[in-house]
Write a structure and sequence with these properties.
alpha+beta, about 375 residues, six-stranded antiparallel β-barrel
Length: about 375
């Protein structure tokens, strides 16, 4: 089956981007150099095409009740314009997907899902909509999306795109009328830096991309540095740190699961996991060496396999060889000495916090 392409695909090709499959799409991995693009976001401004992400709208009298049924976080009484992060779970506590829920208005929600999971998530949402008075719509093919990220992003969005955004605080959203359509603009991102995500028609997104590129004020960034940026600040990637086999409790994301909420799919399984403990937990590991741990590499304790790496890099911002890894819970305590097998050699490491670099959000 052929991969899909975003509305900006031809622009990436024209810029000479390295294109590779990701989540069922042909996506730009890098334009110049992952390190340069990474540093542009950390210190100035970078722009990502994230039009591969999926969008679903939920409206109607039971919209709030329905979202609370399928979502681990609690949207009850949430103020308009607020955004919550959380998960959709299987009954056994495994993760269907992690997602953002935007409260647009009373009983009106905008949900952003991962590109690789669009079809699965949409089927799941439809399957669990029975008995709720809602209008559920998959808008993934309509919306394109840009992420403008970095300490200079607010000035760039306001001055280059002429979109007023300075009053937004982190994890809030508003709509802006533009050329007869309604843009969704949120102060969110996946980089650990201040930034904005802009959702609009393909024509609008192409126009905004052109303005950003012509401005010379932000660097085009590929999915390569999107991964290095999110990893450094300990943000999970579905398929690596969360999956059907990895629950939010195992991943250390219980704070986004409101167990005091009346009910949501998977709640009972999480309650049991919290009470009885889980067999495996996600940890950070810092290696004493420069060797780079990669996804799937074995984690050992005194030579015995006790887990495996989910994501690993030699970090660009903090210059350390680190990884996130799913290990047997008895070895998850901070300071525990472990080893990582990299090809034929074994390198010593220590369990550390999963955040390898501090986030810089506008509160």
């Amino acid at each position: 089956m052929e991969n899909k392409r975003t509305c900006l695909y031809d622009k990436h090709v024209a810029l000479g981007a390295l294109i590779s499959p990701f989540g069922g799409f042909d996506m730009p991995i890098q334009y110049s150099d992952i390190k340069d693009e990474h540093n542009a976001v950390r210190h100035a401004c970078g722009v990502f095409d994230v039009s591969h992400m999926g969008e679903v709208t939920v409206k109607g009298p039971d919209a709030e009740r329905y979202v609370n049924h399928i979502f681990t976080n609690n949207v009850a009484g949430l103020d308009d314009g607020k955004i919550l992060y959380g998960m959709m779970l299987y009954e056994d506590g495994g993760t269907v997907d992690d997602l953002l829920v935007y409260k647009m208005a009373d009983n009106d929600f905008f949900i952003v899902i991962n590109a690789a999971n669009i079809d699965k998530d949409w089927a799941w949402m439809q399957q669990h909509a029975e008995g709720f008075d809602i209008q559920l719509e998959n808008r993934s093919d309509y919306y394109g999306q840009l992420a403008v990220q970095g300490p200079e992003s607010e000035q760039v969005v306001e001055q280059v795109l002429q979109l007023p955004c300075s009053e937004l605080v982190f994890y809030t959203v508003k709509t802006i009328g533009y050329e007869g359509e309604t843009l969704v603009v949120s102060r969110t991102g996946y980089t650990g830096e201040d930034g904005f995500e802009i959702y609009g028609s393909h024509d609008a997104i192409r126009h905004f991309w052109d303005l950003l590129m012509a401005s010379g004020r932000c660097k085009p960034c590929g999915l390569g540095c999107r991964d290095t940026l999110r990893f450094e600040v300990g943000l999970p990637l579905y398929g690596d740190e969360l999956s059907a086999d990895i629950s939010p409790v195992m991943a250390g994301l219980s704070m986004f699961c409101k167990l005091d909420k009346a009910e949501f799919i998977g709640r009972e399984a999480l309650v049991v996991q919290k009470e009885q403990g889980v067999a495996r937990k996600l940890v950070g590991i810092e290696l004493a060496d420069k060797a780079i741990p990669r996804h799937g590499y074995a984690v050992l304790k005194d030579g015995t396999p006790i887990g495996e790496v989910t994501t690993g890099y030699h970090t660009i911002s903090s210059d350390k060889s680190v990884c996130m890894a799913l290990v047997d819970s008895q070895y998850a305590k901070l300071g525990t000495p472990l080893e990582v097998q990299i090809r034929k050699k074994v390198f010593p490491g220590t369990v550390v916090k999963k955040k390898f670099y501090d986030k810089h959000y506008k509160k």
